[in-house]
Amino acid sequence: MSLTISSATEYVVGGDDGWKLGVKYDDWVKDRQFLVGDTLVFKYKSGAHNVYKVTGDEFKSCTVPSNNSLGSFTGNDTIKLATAGTKWYICGISGHCNGGMKLKITVLDGAPAPAPSAASTLFAKATGFHVLLGMIFAIAAVIMV
Ligand SMILES: [Cu+2]
After folding, report:
1. How much distance in Å is there from the Cα of 98 to the middle of ligand 1?
2. What are the DSSP calls for 82-97, one per residue?
3. Residue 138 C-alpha to ligand 1 middle, in angstroms?
4. What are phi and psi of 71, to 5 degrees?
5. What is the pLDDT along the chain (145 residues), one digit of tens a residue?
6. Whole-structure pTM over 0.85, yes or no?
7. Ligand 1 center–CA 49 separation, angstroms
């Protein structure tokens, strides 16, 4: 069991482009880090596309599995990344996977160590300064009495 502090992220696959032909999904994946607990959302015009979770071999050969492992195709298909490892998704419409509608991501286990935020560092400094200020006033008060 690992304790996850950060909240889960929801990724709309392809960003504003969504799930369609003509999007370079490798480029979209490059700058993102996927963690267990995050969610993928495939957005597309219902009926125009679909989403299948596939194996690495099926991904390479663009083979559409006979079962739909993602449930219904609504055009707003949400997938929770439940386990770490490499995940492959393709569009099952004929020719679309070969046309580029294929997504490969690596899901990492757990959250990265949270870096101390600038705000909390500032707060620590401010607190230290106030303690110092308080001591000066306390000393001044003693002298004045
Ligand atoms: Cu498609």
Report:
1. 10
2. -S-EEEEEE--STTTT
3. 72
4. 85, -150
5. 555 556 799 999 999 999 999 999 999 999 899 999 999 999 999 999 999 999 999 999 999 998 877 778 999 999 999 999 999 999 999 999 999 999 999 999 975 555 556 555 555 556 665 665 666 667 666 666 6
6. no
7. 4
